Amino acid sequence: MSKKIRFEKYESGGNDFVLIDDRKNIYNLTTNTIKKICNRNFGVGSDGLIVLKKSSVADIKMFYFNSDGQPSSLCGNGTRCLFTFSLSLGIVEKIAKIETSEGIYTATISNRNLVSLKMKNIDDVILFNNKAYLDSGSPHHVEMIKDLNKISVTKMGSSIRFSSRYSPNGTNVNFFNKISDKKFEVRTYERGVEDETLSCGTGATAVAIAAHAMGLTTQNEIIIRTKGGELFISFEASDVGYKNIYLEGPTNFVFKGEY
Description:
By secondary structure, this protein is of the alpha+beta class. The chain has helices spanning 31-38, 76-89, 153-161, 201-213; strands at 6-12, 15-21, 48-53, 60-66, 95-100, 103-109, 115-118, 126-128, 131-135, 139-144, 172-180, 183-190, 195-197, 221-226, 229-238, 241-249, 252-258.
């Protein structure tokens, strides 16, 4: 690999990403290269890598890769970080449409001066045995656990992620507990990272929607406490599903460099 890759690193709730501006199509990012960049011991270190490209249908286009080097479905925190990155480059305003593998999403600066992302509508929440499964842009298993400090998220999450129920593509796995009617605590095992992450945007969204569908809250503005900080989820519920879903939280620049 001869050409140095310029990057910036951002995080949201400790969910960290390497972001690369490749609007001029100058980088050859192979699966192996992405894995090396994301490696925490021998590379830059991150949960995922995001490539910024030009879009013909939105303001910007993103390609998201997990730390295993494989392309993945929507990453809520990563998309919000990309918006902040693009804002710093001066290529978007305070509201932007972002083309993703799951469709076009809109990001904006919220009244709390945080980055808000409008999520896809969720029409189907499958409930079973005090658990739930839904797609909030990425697939998520959601399960209530009374004491989150007494479980091995990596061990339990991996078992569910690779179980026959979710074969062949697997799922992300969230374990959560109720703090109050409007606040829930969650720990997430992410598919593709194959480990617990400090925060997951689509996971936080899935937990908020699942908690409402399971009858654990009557609120439509939910605070999700992750190991890396708090995320804010709001939505409108109806008999046919959930709409106007927003994921809101901080995004922070960490450092920049060349690899």
